[in-house]
Each structure stands twice: as C-alpha cells, then as structure tokens.
Amino acid sequence: MSVMQTLRQRLGPVTTRPSWRELLRSGIGAGLGLALAGMLVGLVDTFFPRTLFLFAPLGATAVLVFAVPSSPLAQPWNCVVGNTVSALYTLLLLWAFPSLSQTGLAALAVAGAIALMLLLRALHPPGGAVALLTVLAAAQMVPLGWHLLIPMAVMSGVLAAVGVLYHRACGRPYLHQPPPAAVRRQASGLALSEQDLQQLLQRFDQSYNLTPDDLGELLAAAEEQAIKRRLAAVSCGEVMSARLLTVSPQTPLEEVADLFHRHLVKSLPVVDEQQQLIGRVLRADLFDWLWQGHRASQQQSLWQRLRKPGHKSGPVARSLMREPELCVQESTPMGDLLHELASHTVQFIAVLRGNTLVGVITRSDVIRTLLSLNR
Question: What's the pLDDT tens digit per position in 107-136?
Fold first, then answer.
C-alpha cells in the first residue's frame, strides 16, 4: 500500500456518503429553522427593538439539530442550556477580569464553558463558540448585560422546537425517549442492562456521541442481522415440521378439543380436501367459546360438556376458524422471517408447496435450527 493510500485511509473521511434524501432533509431543515428564527427576530423587533438577534453559533446549532438529530449533543436541553450557560459564564468572566488580555479571556471562556456544560450534562459544541463570540465582540455584547441571555436562550429554543416538528413531519426520531427504547431492547432479547450499555459507551469514549438507548438499538439490530445472515442459506422447507396436525372445516369441535387436549399446541391449521390451507383454530378461541356458550351449565365440567352424546352434530371448526396468519413457500429463506418469528403474536408459519400445505414452522423449530448452526 502506497504512502498516499495510507494517508487517505487515516486522514480521509470516516463517515459514509449520505443519500440525496438525507442531504436534502438536513439542508432544507436547517434553512427552514434559521428562516423562522429570523422571521421571529423581525416580528419582535417591530414591537421591542433589539430584543432578539441572530448570532453565528446558531449555524452550528442548526447543523447538529438537523443533520445529526440522534446525537445527545443535539437535544433541546443541550441546545438551550449549552448556549445560554456559556453566555452567562462569559459575561461573569468579562466583568470579573476586565483588564485581562483578549487571548487570556478567550481561553478561560471556552474552557470554563465546556466544564460548565459537562457539569450540567448539556454539552453543546456551539456553546464554545458562544463563549468565544462573547469575548471577541465584548464591545457589543457586554453593554447588553443580562439581556444577552434572552436571545441566546430564545433563538436556541426556536431552532430546537422547529427541529422537533420538522423531524416528526419527516418521520425521523429526534427527542430521546429512554423508556420506550428500553422496552424495545427487552422485547428484542438483548441481555444488557442500562448500566452495561453506559459502561460500554464510557469504555470506548462514546458517551457524547450515543446514548445507551441508541447503543442498545444498534446492538439489537446487529444481533438480528447476524442471525439473518446465518439463516439466509437455510430454506423454510429445511426447518419446517412435516408431521402435520390439521383439521377440516367440518371437524366437530369435540374432535378439535381432543387434539388440543392430547397435543401441546396453541393453534391448528384448517385445510380443505386438497390439503390447501384455508384458516386456523386457536386453543384460546375454543376455550372462550366453551366458557361463554356453556356458562349456564355449572354442574358439569367443561370436558364433560364436550364429551356428552350428540355433541358431534353441533358446531364445527369453521365456526371458530380465523384467516391464515402467515404463509411462505418451501424455498423462502429463513432469514426473511426473523421479524415475524420475533413477534409473540405469530403462532406458526405455514409452509406451502404451491397451494398445498406441507409443513409448519414454530419458534421451537427456529431455535433448534440456530442451535444446529452453532455447533
């Protein structure tokens, strides 16, 4: 490898090339946010001159809010508190040390602003620019006094508010919501606690680039992708259980109950004379029907009521049948079904050869397949 290639790898771009959609979404969002902020300044200036104004670090805030909204540094708390506390600290510094050189004030302002933002868990890179701007433009900033904090907080809040509405309209998450994300991690089976994820972020110095929720979702997605790749070469026909337990639409519910009683299954496929799948009967539906339809017969057990003579001429499987839940062909790769299999609402996946039912796949079949691949 040549020296130029080595330098390009080490010093070149590390981020992936964005899509055109991402480019347009980020650029339009930032322009819209700053345009609305400018309109607000003009509107307020009509009634209260020089109350609000735009300042250069807002451009950097717009980059974070609209280009990297998932970053903890771009959250509303960081935008508003980071910019405001940096301005407040720098004002106090300028009043406390009026004779200090501009270079010294600039260094102390930026360093102190960073420390305060870290302390308040409001790290926001434009906050450092706010501190530097206040020092460099002290002649204009200092006479404003405490009033300087109003435009810093209001304009930062306006950009954050526009970001919330804009990203919601685009269908992109912006505000971090830890509880729902924690629920998603639990549902995905990720065996890591909030503390484990936080320790991983600290270990790799990523605490201010990702939240524990973001890391949890990434790990869960990586785990799912790895399983999907393993199962990509395995077809549904190789995984399915070919020993079918089925009923016909005219099967008496007594016989359906017998099957549920003798086999540990939660649902039964319903097929016609050509073995084509037309529906399914759930154990829960059968028991609900028994309870609701025979609640008056308190002296007999449910099983006795099912077994009584003449019941075979009663209701049949068709009366409780539901639509087929999910059907695939034998050649379908198992990796395509991970999302459905992860759902607790899927009782089984029907495997067809053309239109004929030839097998079913349950979560037990998938677990058995994964165990065999790990050997």
Answer: 999 999 999 999 999 999 999 999 999 999
Cβ-based neighbour number of residue 358 at 10 Å? 18
Burial profile 81-109: b = 16 or more Cβ within 10 angstroms, e = fewer: bbbbbbbbbbbebbeeeeeeeeeebbebb
DSSP calls for 219-264: HHHHHHHHHHHHHTT-BHHHHSB-S---B-TT-BHHHHHHHHHHS-
| CA-angle at 37, arms to 32 and 42, nearest 5° | 125
Length of the chain: 375
Task: Let me know the angle formed at the C-alpha of 348 by 347 and 353, rounded to the nearest 5 degrees.
Answer: 160
- Using one digit for the tens of pLDDT, what is the confidence trace for 223-248? 777 777 777 778 888 888 888 888 99
**Rg for the chain, CA atoms, rounded:** 32
Report the b/e string of 230-240 with b at 16+ CB within 10 A: ebeebbbbebb
Concatenated DSSP letters of 159-218: HHHHHHHHHHHHT---S--HHHHHHHHHHHT----HHHHHHHHHHTT-TTT--HHHHHHH
- Look at domain 236-373 and name its CATH class: alpha beta
Map out the domains of the chain as residue ranges: 17-170, 186-231, 236-373
What order do you get walking across the sheet with 327-329 strand by strand? 327-329, 349-353, 356-361
Tokens at residue 271, please? 């097929």
